């Protein structure tokens, strides 16, 4: 959960000094990139190359083993042919450095890494064609399958027992539902939580475990023109939510975020599902829980965005991107109901697969 003043706010001069001291680079161009909890800065040094300085929030910076595993995961995916960023060693040969800096809230410690810059446009800015949605589902399944093969001495840190963004921990939202007292959304949020506890939780023992990226959203997937009037995925960003979870959670997260960018959100599930199952078919328990899990991710996004805005009102525009579209889509999905939504998703997925 967000903590007030945990998000770094390095000034341009602090960024330039940090990059020069740690990496020997002279930044001729510095520009801010969006981020939920951390600070991402585009660096264009006179020495050549393009990079992203990623400054972790002060809370996550207290867990360097977790950041080490995330950094290793990015490198592991890159080695296996997926378009993930990699960290560059600093002048001491380390992939990350703990820096004590005052950003205006008193002196705090922040883990700093310099990552490769991946060119491309966020998937939020291009038409979400059925083919691109198919490729997104397939990429998400491929990514989690590769991550499951990863070996590292600190993998246990990914358990993250009380991580509020994990779909295993939906009941942790309950103390924040009061933010919606009297709102039409209050009833929907409480109903989804009830469905989750009574329907999904008993079936979880049949879900297949894996390591989740956990935030495969419309701002963390980059695309590039494919030369055929479409786009291909050219980058996977932000492993800050990575945790031990289940394959079906990643699929639900992917569908939910792609829905927020589509003019007809209900039509997203079929192509994404088809792409996922082309690589990793679902079992019956996973199929049965997909609908409630997609709704559950909408609840997480909406509730936590509202809470974060109460801490960081200056960052409201970015924090509420998904939430603004999500409120309408969540209500629409809930009103249509499980049977109707599942019928559309699974029939569309079958038809899409038949055409392949």
From TrEMBL:
Question: What broad class of enzyme is this?
Answer: transferase
Q: Where is the Aminoglycoside phosphotransferase domain?
A: 35-265
Which Pfam families does the UniProt record give? Answer: APH (PF01636)
Which GO MF term does the entry hold, naming one?
hydroxylysine kinase activity
Per its record, the protein catalyses: (5R)-5-hydroxy-L-lysine + GTP = (5R)-5-phosphooxy-L-lysine + GDP + H(+)
- E.C. code: 2.7.1.81
| Name of this chain's protein | Hydroxylysine kinase
Task: Name the major location.
Answer: cytoplasm
- According to its UniProt record, where is this protein located? Cytoplasm
* Highest taxon of source: Eukaryota
The family assignment reads: Belongs to the aminoglycoside phosphotransferase family.
State the UniProt keywords alphabetically. Cytoplasm, Kinase, Transferase
Q: Which PANTHER family match?
A: AMINOGLYCOSIDE PHOSPHOTRANSFERASE DOMAIN-CONTAINING PROTEIN-RELATED, HYDROXYLYSINE KINASE
Reported function: Catalyzes the GTP-dependent phosphorylation of 5-hydroxy-L-lysine.
Give the GO cellular component terms, alphabetically: cytoplasm
